[in-house]
Design brief:
Blueprint: E1 12-21, E2 29-34, E3 62-64, H1 66-74, E4 82-86, H2 94-106, E5 111-115, H3 121-127, E6 133-137, H4 143-150, H5 155-167, E7 170-177, H6 184-198, E8 203-208, H7 216-219, H8 226-239, E9 243-246
Parallel strand pairs: 2-4, 4-5, 5-6, 6-7, 7-8, 8-9
Antiparallel strand pairs: 1-2, 1-3
The structure holds iron/sulfur cluster (SF4).
Length: 247
Amino acid sequence: MSEQVQNLSLMGYVRRILPFSSVDGPGNRTIIFLQGCSFRCGYCHNPETIALGSVLSTDEVSLRSPEDVVQEVLKYRLFISGVTISGGECTLQPEFLLDLVKALKKENFNVLIDTNGDFDQAFYERIRPWVDGFMLDVKSVNPEAHKELTGEDNQRVLENLNRMAQDRTLCEVRTVIVPEWLDNTHTVSYVSKVLAAHAPETRYKLIRFRPHGVVAQFKGKTMPNHTEMEKLEKIALDAGLKQVILV
Ligand code: SF4
């Protein structure tokens, strides 16, 4: 590891800590949700995690040190196989995230980063030696559609997808399937080819869009049917992926 564990004093905005989850990485895991997100996805089911800064209510978000967070996670140690740090987008607080990861590794936890991929390669180089893997959302490979959905460009997401696949640091990739709006075939085909070329064992999760609890613009959109999902699953399997999961 290239950086030393020292001076772990930075504070970060933590939304909540979920003691146990079996759907956020392999095994039973504790999930740490950091506050703040760089995207504004129309289908976000956790919009309360997006804001970061002066609009925060102290009742819902706490400013905590890495050591304080680790002390809470240690209470669950006997029952979990690891910790997943999620959001919002956890890399929006990069220095706190780095210190938190180092503090967790000091206690020998398996640590995964759940991310929308919107961070630069320099940060990837810094955090990569400290984590056991990444869980990455790829929302759309079409730049215009991505911007319309999230408010932001997808260039860094795709750079990270390619780099993580080459480095085999991906634990899981997810794409939410929204019929008649996103070019799902293009995105699933692109992601599958990248993964198949470098890390075909990576789990690729295709998640049905669900209209409840989303912003008004997305309320009228329909869920993909079984046939559409199976067609996308076939594209991923035909590309050579070993684990394709429909959710
Ligand atoms: S990246 Fe995730 S948390 Fe952020 S707005 Fe999109 S769906 Fe919500």
